[in-house]
From TrEMBL, chain A:
Record-annotated Nitrile hydratase beta subunit-like N-terminal domain positions: 35-115
SUPFAM superfamilies per the UniProt record, alphabetical: Electron transport accessory proteins
Record-given protein name: Nitrile hydratase accessory protein
InterPro entries assigned to the protein according to its UniProt record, in alphabetical order: CN_hydtase_beta-like_N (IPR049054), CN_hydtase_beta_C (IPR042262), Elect_transpt_acc-like_dom_sf (IPR008990), Nitrile_Hydratase_acc_put (IPR023808)
Gene3D superfamilies, sorted: Nitrile hydratase, beta subunit
Record-annotated membrane-spanning stretches: none
UniProtKB/TrEMBL annotation, chain B:
EC code: 4.2.1.84
Keyword hit for DNA damage: no
Domain of life: Bacteria
Name of the featured protein: nitrile hydratase
Lineage: Bacteria, Bacillati, Actinomycetota, Actinomycetes, Micrococcales
Domain named Nitrile hydratase alpha/Thiocyanate hydrolase gamma: residues: 22-202
Keywords: Lyase, Metal-binding
Signal peptide: none
Reactions accelerated catalytically: an aliphatic primary amide = an aliphatic nitrile + H2O
Gene3D superfamilies with a match to the protein in the record: Nitrile hydratase alpha /Thiocyanate hydrolase gamma
Family: Belongs to the nitrile hydratase subunit alpha family.
Database matches in Pfam families: NHase_alpha
InterPro entries in UniProt: CN_Hdrase_a/SCN_Hdrase_g_sf, CN_Hdrtase_a/SCN_Hdrlase_g, CN_Hdrtase_asu/SCN_Hdrlase_gsu, Nitrile_hydratase_asu
Database matches in NCBIfam families: nitrile_alph
Length: 127, 213
């Protein structure tokens, strides 16, 4: 397993001026150093999935950079929807690689909502 | 149910359970990838853990604290940041050149990237969103004092502010001034005073009393 620094360097190397920004804190000017890198748990999860899939060889960082660029380009200027773009890019890549179609994602998303709806408050939601 | 299929794709769908749309969507991705044997929980947790703990401003903070504590290392860092930083095991990508710029009572340094958002990941970890915002990028060049004010930092009027524009080839690390009253601190204690923002130049190092033990 490569170290995090190597992974980061790998992503950065692929991005160059084209950007796909690295995952960023939901920061704002004035926010302190204690900012969470990930504003919400799902952001960390989708980021981690991407790193793991890369380690498994599903895509290269330049390929990822391209997919993410496409989504970020249409995203908000202030980067506030950065992880939304990230997730959308991951869906694009998964569909493109034949791993999971848009329909698969819709279906599984609905299952999670259904599971949440039937789970009493305070209990872990499980499918 | 089916009517919102199309515009649902970006994750903005109606929240019809206690899960937020994005939460449900990302759980769905994890479920699908787990079913296909591509990810597992332990691997995901390990990744999150190492990004939050292992990288991050810690590496840069360690570099700065060492420079504060060891005059020889400080000199080396200012002369050849690549080598000095690499000696601590923090290696950037090939071809990326790091330059350390030191704050002094006469001059405060601040880093921006007007073209893209070049950021020294290996030492500073994951960059904050504002770093790449057009507002920060343009304002930092035109009105650095105003940007510092946005961050709650006021510098003496006669202190010069130098803004460094990163490029794909050169990335800057600001070495903040060592706070007063830190003579007796160990390098480890000093490290805790070095914030990410202080190494971008949008903040100052913390005083010992600002760090809760």
């Amino acid at each position: 397993m490569t170290s995090a620094a190597q992974t980061l360097a790998g992503i950065a190397a692929s991005c160059g001026d084209g950007l796909p920004l690295p995952p960023a804190a939901a920061g704002r000017p004035g926010a302190g150093a204690g900012d969470e890198v990930f504003a919400e748990p799902w952001q960390a999860q989708v980021f981690a999935m991407t790193v793991v899939l890369h380690e498994r060889g599903l895509f290269t960082w330049p390929e990822w950079a391209q997919a993410l660029s496409r989504r970020v380009r249409d995203g908000a200027d202030d980067g506030s929807d950065y992880y939304r773009c990230w997730a959308a890019a991951l869906e694009d890549v998964l569909a493109d690689r034949g791993v999971a179609s848009a329909g698969d994602v819709e279906g599984a998303t609905r299952q999670w909502h259904d599971a949440a709806a039937r789970t009493p408050h305070g209990q872990p939601i499980e499918l | 149910m089916g009517h919102d299929h199309d515009h649902d794709h970006d994750g903005e769908g109606t929240a019809y359970s206690s899960l937020s749309p994005m939460d449900a969507r990302v759980r769905a991705l994890e479920t699908l990838l787990t079913e296909r044997g591509l990810v597992d929980r332990a691997a995901l947790d390990a990744v999150v853990e190492r990004y939050e703990k292992e990288v991050g401003p810690h590496n840069g903070a360690q570099v700065v604290a060492k420079a504060w504590a060891e005059p020889d290392y400080r000199r080396w860092l200012l002369e050849d940041a690549d080598a000095a930083i690499a000696s601590l095991g923090h290696v950037g990508r090939q071809g990326e050149h790091m330059v350390a710029v030191e704050n002094t009572p006469e001059r405060h340094n601040m880093v921006v990237c007007t073209l893209c958002s070049c950021y020294p990941w290996p030492v500073l970890g994951l960059p904050p969103v504002w770093y790449k915002s057009p507002a920060y990028r343009s304002k930092a060049v035109i009105d650095p004092r105003g940007v510092l004010a946005d961050f709650g930092v006021t510098l003496p009027q006669d202190m010069q502010i130098k803004v460094w524009d990163s490029t794909a080839e050169v990335r800057y690390l600001v070495v903040p001034m060592r706070p007063e009253g830190t003579e007796g601190l160990s390098q480890e204690q000093l490290t805790a005073l070095v914030t990410r923002d202080s190494m971008i130049g949008t903040g100052l190092a913390r005083a010992p009393h600002e760090v809760s033990a």
